[in-house]
Amino acid sequence: MNRDAQTITNDFDLSDEPTIRFDAVLQPHTSLGPQGFLLLMAVIGVISFTAGVAFIMVGAWPVFGFLGLDVVLVYVAFKFNYRDARRYETVKLTDRKLLIERVGPTGRRQKWSFQTYWLKVDLENPPTPESALMLRSHGKVLEIGIFLTPQEKYDLATALRDELEKLRRNPVTQ
Asked: Is 52 within 8 Å of 68 (Cβ atoms)?
């Protein structure tokens, strides 16, 4: 959920940022790899076909169609899952900015930039599955890592807070 987050439309220019202090790519988990998917679909197909033939032999031929529909629905569900898994977020912390880029399943890109000095990283402790990892600064609010597990959100929040604290203790002079 992006409340009042200001979208940056141009590409990030890191030429004036000599040091990248933190760089992470956040991706949702995929449930199965391509070979596992093919194996699963083959097993489901063989089982459904075998059961369907058995039902035809006892005279319950309409069941064969429903078993085929089950195979199609499992296939479609996995395809939607794989499509959704194409999304990712990048988090880059430099001396003066925290840069967030979100790429959706369709390839649509959104970018945000936060000044590091005023940035606050919010997350419930301990995090729950409903916890939101929020970045706040000057009225801008952005939720990141929506698809991460609570532990992953906690680890990311801790790492970002640590790096921001180091940066505030030893500010970069220009």
From this structure: yes
Question: So what CATH class is 20-28+87-169?
Answer: mainly beta
The residue ranges of every structural domain in the chain are 20-28+87-169, 34-84
Which class for 125: exposed (0-12), middle (13-18), buried (19 or more C-beta within 10 A)? exposed
d(CA 88, CA 96): 23
Would you say 101 and 110 are in contact if contact means Cβ atoms under 8 Å apart?
yes
Q: What is the pLDDT of residues 94-126, one digit of tens each?
A: 988 999 999 999 889 999 999 988 899 999 888
d(CA 87, CA 28): 7
Model-level pTM? 0.70
Residue 130 has pLDDT above 70, yes or no: yes
Cα of first residue to Cα of last residue in the chain, in angstroms, is 35
